[in-house]
Design goal:
By secondary structure, this protein is mainly beta. Helix content is 2%, strand content 26%.
Length: 244
């Protein structure tokens, strides 16, 4: 990447599975590269890890704050990634389709995890999420090994630590969210058409976007006293809803 480039849009290197290295001119004012990985100039955002690199492990540098959209998408050789304490945000699709990734620990200062960020990581069996997270995007852990393991589902609902990730659409009747839960992820109960009521404990602080989207038969919702954020379209198309 020469001096003159000041903009690189999302998907610029999407699905380039043979790309092993990205080099940036030292005189470029917008971007830089370290060990073949693309960053913004001050190295606070990791923009793109080359998907064809054959390293099995990678440590994100300490000053990085944001793991950008699609940053590690299709990096199929990586079995482990170390995320430093400096990271506060993991954006959408960041690790999607990292098929060999087996476990991940999200540091304590991360507050948001984007949609589909770890989806289709088919070997990802262990996930640790910090309590400080206030936002989890839709399908963030969809079809990971953790998601596919029936032992991780409690009465048709998937939790990771204090966060409610997803409910199966077969869930019905009245559901009481587990005490201690802090975040209801985006689209967590979407299309649970047989759900009639939900009780949300005092511990919950965030109800994600579209969390109860198209829950046609939900009649009432009891919210705990600590809910600080009810995101866009949280109860979209809940046509029977009479009371919150």
């Amino acid at each position: 990447i020469p001096d003159s480039v000041v903009t690189i849009d999302r998907h610029a290197f999407g699905r380039c599975k043979s790309l092993t290295n990205i080099d940036v001119s030292e005189n470029n004012t917008a971007f830089t590269s370290v060990d073949g990985v693309l960053f913004n100039k001050d190295k606070t955002t990791l923009i793109k890890y080359p998907a064809g690199n054959t390293r099995t492990s990678y440590t994100i540098p300490n000053n990085v704050k944001i793991v950008g959209k699609d940053a590690f998408e299709y990096s199929e050789s990586l079995t482990s990634i170390t995320i430093p304490d400096s990271v506060t945000s993991i954006e959408m699709f960041a690790f999607c389709y990292c098929d060999s990734l087996t476990s991940v620990t999200i540091p304590d200062d991360v507050t948001s995890i984007g949609s589909w960020s770890f989806a289709h990581c088919s070997s990802l069996a262990g996930v640790i999420l910090p309590d400080n997270i206030t936002s989890i995007g839709s399908y963030a852990f969809y079809l990971t090994s953790y998601y596919n393991n029936s032992l991780n589902w409690e009465n048709n609902v998937l939790y990771i630590g204090k966060h409610l990730i997803k409910a199966k659409d077969s869930i019905d009747g009245i559901y009481r969210i587990k005490e201690g839960t802090k975040v209801i992820a985006e689209q967590a109960f979407a299309y649970c058409k047989s759900l009639t009521a939900v009780a949300i404990p005092d511990s919950v602080i965030t109800i994600g976007s579209y969390a109860f989207n198209n829950c046609d038969n939900i009649i009432n919702v009891i919210c705990g006293k600590n809910v600080a954020t009810i995101s866009n379209y949280a109860f979209y198309y809940c046509k029977s809803l009479k009371e919150i």
